[in-house]
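Task: sequence design from structure.
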């Protein structure tokens, strides 16, 4: 079963997107559709066709966001989490070759590999939940088990950007 969890920052980002789409972007596109429709023959009016399609896409995304925001559960940091990896944690891992990577466990709606975010439903995240610094973690990946050591855990972002994806982590970060 997939988790319907999100960090407060992630929820706020989705809420901001919803408000922008509904209150700003959709009215702009609706106006463009009305202006294009006023030009007459809609069947050969590229402006009308394009903006009408865009309006349907916006409406679809708005419906999705409204429904999704209702079913998501915001998970805030709790002092009891300190020292262990739980939802929302940033952590640094190292493998036997000395490669270090930093990641954060988030919900699927926040997944962004460029920021080093991995989903709570990934094999890596599942293997790390409840672990602490100096623990060794074995992650089952399609290419076989991979070993990682936990160097750091925090509930605030790392200042420097060390996020990376050594080949051995690519299978398990998803």
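Answer:
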């Amino acid at each position: 079963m997939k988790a319907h969890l999100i960090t407060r920052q992630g929820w706020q980002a989705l809420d901001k997107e919803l408000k922008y789409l509904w209150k700003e972007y959709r009215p702009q596109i609706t106006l463009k559709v009305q202006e294009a429709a006023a030009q007459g023959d809609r069947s050969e009016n590229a402006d009308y066709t394009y903006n009408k399609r865009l309006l349907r896409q916006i409406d679809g995304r708005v419906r999705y966001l409204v429904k999704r925001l209702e079913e998501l559960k915001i998970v805030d940091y709790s002092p009891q989490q300190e020292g262990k990896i739980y939802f929302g944690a940033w952590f640094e891992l190292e493998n036997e070759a000395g490669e270090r990577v930093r990641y954060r466990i988030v919900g699927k709606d926040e997944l962004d590999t460029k920021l080093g975010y991995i989903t709570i439903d990934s094999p890596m995240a599942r293997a790390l939940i409840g672990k602490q610094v100096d623990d060794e973690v074995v992650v089952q990946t399609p290419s076989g088990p991979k070993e990682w050591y936990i160097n750091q855990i925090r509930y605030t972002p790392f200042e420097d950007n060390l996020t990376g994806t050594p080949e051995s982590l690519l299978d398990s970060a998803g």
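Residues 8-37 form the longest helix (30 residues).
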